């Protein structure tokens, strides 16, 4: 072998085939990073560089017993085979340490059974997998498969170490591969992420900042179980690594669940009733009227292929069992992976106990990896390696305990760590028999860490257990620092706890926040209970968050802070209720009103009030009257936002009490609450809200007036009164802008956009709603975004841009899906309108039916008022049902909705041959439109009257009406509904034929020259005398009112006659009637009277 040792063993050499490693072989595959670019940019250097590479290979490969097949490999790549994995690793290290610049090698190592293509070349899965592993590496990087890494774990070259890079998908291969990097002080060890294809993020799994060590076979086992069973629970002690194993497994399976992978952390949840809420919130699903959080989750998942990871179930076993059973029964493609210290014990559950790490391999690797994070220069060789093994063994291979021990290498030697375990750990492993051994093991580790703390650190540590979900420095100072000395020490002590890995610091949000691992928090709560100060600390915790919420409510900085502190806020409220501090509990929930509204947490806010009112002890409590009134009002306002069931009687009792107290601000808010609960009873809502606005104006309460005017804008929209709605919205918005209430500013602009649409200003409505949506989306105000999207879709549909309307609705539909189906009735309502304008009346009918099915009872009439069902029915040929629908609507619809219904019935009546009914409906629609300034339907009404004029043979009138309608339609920016206006072109053409081109053009032009108001007046001539009083302003006909308005504008009789297509004598006759009805004698008096009405 001496001659062979002197040179590289090339398989093409005579006799070398006899030395070919067979059976299980370790292959080294390498290539040159960026060789093509190097040849282009440094051609002169590359020839000697490759010669140098060949020379290095000739020297290094035989030293380590490698065999290199010259004919295997393409371009700049090469293959070397080894009988022992450790030889391959040593060879790779020597290659990377060699002076090869400008060449940098990418090296991959894998061990497996090989197949020979002939006597001198390998083929098959092993060499293919090795090549793919090499492709993951960067220049200068050596990566090993998990198989090879396990073989060389105890045989790494001196001073070298292995770094876990996790499991990664490998191109063209069916399963991910665990990848390990070979590191050494003489080589580069920091590289970008491996060169893997980036899969789309389809999960909310938390990013892991540390490497995942070991457990590859366990991941495979759990993954196999999940493919066979829909419910798998990982059990084991706290700190056994259940969560990390579950997250790693879920991450590898993410690509198999196109509906997503959702991690639900139940650790902060103390109240079983909050479990469904937590799941819904984690999935981004808000509260929904008339539907429990569980129903919302079921509807969202439905038949999607979803993996749900329920983490930390042990303290909520009963509710978790019920929740899991409900979800699996209702969602056929759902798979659940749980973690718990105990089995959940439900039918179909497969339990898998998470074992400790293997002591000779995984546990030691974990310790070394975490120790290097704490002290980068850490090495474990010789006696130190034995100490590490001993520490891991005596910690029973528990990951949490190992990580805590490893973190101590910053301040302690391995011998000191081992000695500390001698003093504490052995005693705790011999604890009571009714405590599980694995719990004793975890307690040993935590007790040991606790014993290393100073008295001051221990005091702070146990007090921090009261926090839920994290805290900031200000909260830590307020809650845990009782004495003045503790106030000064808190920052230093907290920093020490962070350094000792007992508290985790996180500054991702830009503000440093701290948290305890749940296992640690449970431990601190035990210590807090033993200390006798638990009640005091909980009181301080509650008092801090109550005060902080009140302060932030006053300075408008509540919402974002409250969202980040939601777990602490819930805990503070729960403690208040447990102690029967009902006045504090109610005030606290009221102070969070902006959070409940701005972030659509309506049901959570209502639940906070309900929990107090439903407590049997509340009846005997002594809650301040003002606190009760505000709580009832706040709860009623929340219910009004989502049309949730609420007691108007209780709200009215609160209103009466507020009046008795003489507290005008409370009266205003109680009136607002009553008005909100009466939204869908327009007269009642108008009465309450009008008084609220007048009182707010009288006492100068601008913030309250802003809210009331916003709610008036919505109430007027429900009542079909666009002018009233717009004026309220504009005033409310101006006040909101002035006082800096951005949410109410956007809320008011939302209804301003709807009002502008009904008034007939489509272009401006689109502008308002478009700018509004840009803001609400940026602020994550889902409720306003959803309603605004529907409004903008409606505006686009009326304008004939059905593609934009449909796209807007699709965006809204995606949002309502995220929100768990909230406001689905509005989505389907909008879909029906879009389909009608697209002349797809079958789809419109289906959408309209779906809208009615989704609508809660309180909203049903409102939804029906604006639904395009009759148009859809006409388009599908069901005229009778369309007529029945609109007839029923006209028994209750108000305002603009009545204009719409009347025009629709007019067209249906024409189709049914009821021309007089059609004439009456069209004229009444115009009269109402003129009265409430809602002009959106005016062009359709004018076109309808034009058709009736054609039937009556009055083609001149018809041409003027058609011209007026066309001009109004262009000004407003709307198109015709195909189903109702079918044949319009033919009717206009018939009019042209009857009149001739010149006369038709003259009449058309005259009609087109009319303003919308003038067109209405022209169409209404001769009508309106019926059912009017004999005198007073209300006795005037629409034409007489139009004459008066033109007089007020300063026009003479001749100009008025030209505007209205009547003679000056007729104008004078109208004026004579007006003077008599109003008991006036001069034009000046008429102008003065008109100024009070017009």
From TrEMBL:
Gene Ontology terms, MF aspect: adenylate cyclase activity; ADP binding; DNA binding
Keyword Iron listed: no
Pfam families hit by this protein: GerE, Guanylate_cyc, HTH_77
UniProt domain HTH luxR-type: residue ranges: 1029-1094
Keyword match Transmembrane: no
A GO BP entry: cyclic nucleotide biosynthetic process
Residue span, Guanylate cyclase domain: 26-134
Keywords: DNA-binding, Transcription, Transcription regulation
Gene3D superfamilies from the UniProt entry: Nucleotide cyclase, P-loop containing nucleotide triphosphate hydrolases, Winged helix-like DNA-binding domain superfamily/Winged helix DNA-binding domain
Protein name from the UniProt record: LuxR family transcriptional regulator
Organism, scientific name: Mycolicibacterium tusciae
Species lineage: Bacteria, Bacillati, Actinomycetota, Actinomycetes, Mycobacteriales
